[in-house]
Amino acid sequence: MTRAETLSIALPALVVLALIIAPLGLDPYGYTLRILCLMLLFCAMGQAWNIVGGLANQISLGHAAYFGIGAYSSTILFGSFGLSPLIGVFVGMALAALFALVLSLPTLRLKGHYFALATLAAGEVARVVANSWTSLTGGPVGISVPYRPDAGFWALQFQTVLPNYYLFLGAMVLVSLVFWRVQTSAFGYRLRAIKENETAAEVIGVNTYRVKLHASLLSAVLTAMLGTLYAQFQFFFDPDTIFGVATISVKMALIVILGGAGRLYGPWIGAAVIIPLEEMANSYLGNSIAGLSQFAYGVLLIVVILLNPRGLISLFESLRDRLKRRQRA
Amino acid sequence: MEYLIILLQTLLDGIMIGGVYAVLAIGLSLVFGVMHIVNFAHAEFMMIGMFIGWACWHFLGLDPMLGAFIALAVTFGFGMVLQRVLIRPVLGAPQVAQIFLTVGMLFALENAALMIMGAEYRSVTTPYQTQSLTLFSHGAERVLVGMDKLYAFLMALLSGSAVWLFLNKTRFGAAMRATSQDPMAAKLMGVNTDLMYAVAFGLGVGTTAFGGSVVLPYITASPAVGSGYAVLMFTVVVLGGLGSVTGAIIGGIAVGIIQSFSALFMPIQLQNLALFVVFILVLALRPEGIVARRRS
């Protein structure tokens, strides 16, 4: 094994190890742990988006649809039929796959701006449906996950935040492994061929439609799974947050782009920066000025794009290369 | 005869509101046509136009139809600055950068408005809001048009024609069209393409702000009002063909008529849903019609 290869395995292993140890010193009911939970969850969401948005450069602005479908499916099944979220999560994943399949018919041949516009509208369709189908979703007032702490793991509810933390860590590692597996496989090469030049990819025999469809399905299913986890963690949500363009769809993409699109560590870096920053802004500024945190969020997006559209990871890399060159000299 | 009256009334309502949709969308189409950028933040300029129109009415006692010209001027200048500072750096960049830059602008503008103006709804009162014109009557049945809608429609018609004349009948407009077709060739012919881009963006957001002000008598202003019209504006331009002014006008009136007829038998929530679905389908079925403009 070369040094670079050892490093590429040792580094993420060290990060995960640190993440396993990290909460041991923290208050198991604490605020800090909750933020770490959200960080892991959003990292996983970014990674799921990264499969389509990063590798194939299909910029989806409608991933909230899958996230919300996952959250609503398990919550409604649990609330109305007492079905464990451990089973409900699979129903949500199946429904999200179905939604992705239906959506792929009109959208997958679209490129760039047009794909972004169509997926944006699709996310809004999901939000409007959830708001108006009151008998099923509870409508705009939102929906609560019934609190059954006695049911334990079966209800996917815990006395402290700690089990949630490890659950989210597991999910993050799982989604990252899926991404890594995709990235390094022939499938990943095909996706990147589409990103570089779709026509050329088609000419050399890549079935671009099928490749994009498979990536979308995978991404949708993973996102829905995370939606269920989010619902079980928050216990309450409403259509405008769970299907939100700013709160979910764009945030997923922003995390990836800030860190580095199409890169395994992109969402790790992005989530590690954005989520704590956001929480800090919220706790210091509170709701004293409505709109300030979202305003800051918009400005951050603009700044990232103008300064370094390739993400923070490229900053680290150029720094590392410079150090190496100095060592050699 | 009753049915005919209802039909005529619905058609008329559709045309009136459609004319306004057209003027809101012309700007979006213009920005795309000249710069090949889809401005996700575009609907926010309608909101800005509404607030400028409202401020002119509230502080200066100016009618929103006149305030619209101030909205146009102010937003034109603001748009030129935004183009210089934010849009120009991403003109040649990958589409991802363009998409997220304008999405960032969307959040920044909407929430800046929220911070400055607060979340409450603001409306104007004008003497003509309650008046209407009877166009046709048959016994007790009448076909009416509200004066506020009629004025807004006429103003929309005025600004739409002005933009069309500017683009098609002036030297400056010709230079702008040249820039849209082939920036390199235009540059070689001595066209200042940077200026064209800035003016196109300023004019694009300016016309949309103008449209925002003229609808004030019947749509209340709030920071979130733009997001509610974003998909509608995109549907209009996509229907008519992105980048074409005439297309935007036809698309606007078509969407207005579709909306007023669907209001006859659908609750409001489902109307929005129908609009989204139409939008996705149009994107899917005519992708080449959207991108490819006639090149002569």
- Name the CATH class of chain A: Mainly Alpha
List low-confidence stretches of chain A: none
Morphology call of chain A: globular
Beta-strand segment tally of chain B: 2
CATH architecture verdict of chain A: Orthogonal Bundle
The helix tally of chain B amounts to 12
The Rg value of chain A, from CA coordinates, equals 20 Å
Biggest sheet strand order of chain B reads 1-2
Largest pleated sheet of chain B: 2 strands, antiparallel
Number of strands of chain A: 2
What's a concise summary of this model?
The complex is a heterodimer of chains A (329) and B (296). Chain A has 329 residues and is an all-alpha fold.
What does this structure look like?
The complex is a heterodimer of chains A (329) and B (296). By secondary structure, chain A is mainly α. Chain A has one domain: ABC transporter involved in vitamin B12 uptake, BtuC (Orthogonal Bundle). Chain A has 15 helices and two strands. Chain A is globular and about 65 Å long. The relative contact order of chain A is 0.16. By secondary structure, chain B is mainly α. Chain B has a single domain (2-291), classed as ABC transporter involved in vitamin B12 uptake, BtuC, CATH 1.10.3470. Helix content of chain B is 75%, strand content 4%. Chain B has twelve helices and two strands, in the order ααααββαααααααα. In chain B, β1 (132-138) and β2 (141-146) form a beta hairpin. In chain B, α1 (2-35) packs antiparallel against α10, α5 packs across α6 and α9 runs parallel beside α11 (268-285). Chain B starts with a helix and ends in a 5-residue tail after the last helix. Residues 288-296 of chain B have low confidence and may be disordered. The chains are: A mainly alpha (329), B mainly alpha (296). At the A-B interface, α4, α5, α12 and α14 of A face α4, α9, α11 and α12 of B.
Topology, element by element:
The complex is a heterodimer of chains A (329) and B (296).
Chain A: H1 3-21, H2 31-55, H3 64-81, H4 85-107, H5 112-132, H6 134-137, E1 143-144, H7 162-184, H8 186-196, H9 198-203, H10 208-234, E2 236-237, H11 239-242, H12 245-259, H13 266-285, H14 292-307, H15 312-328
Antiparallel strand pairs in A: 1-2
Helix pairs in contact in A: 2-7, 2-10, 2-12, 2-13, 3-4, 3-5, 3-10, 4-10, 7-8, 7-10, 8-10, 12-13, 12-14
Chain B: H1 2-35, H2 43-60, H3 64-87, H4 95-117, E1 132-138, E2 141-146, H5 147-169, H6 171-181, H7 183-188, H8 193-214, H9 225-240, H10 245-265, H11 268-285, H12 287-291
Antiparallel strand pairs in B: 1-2
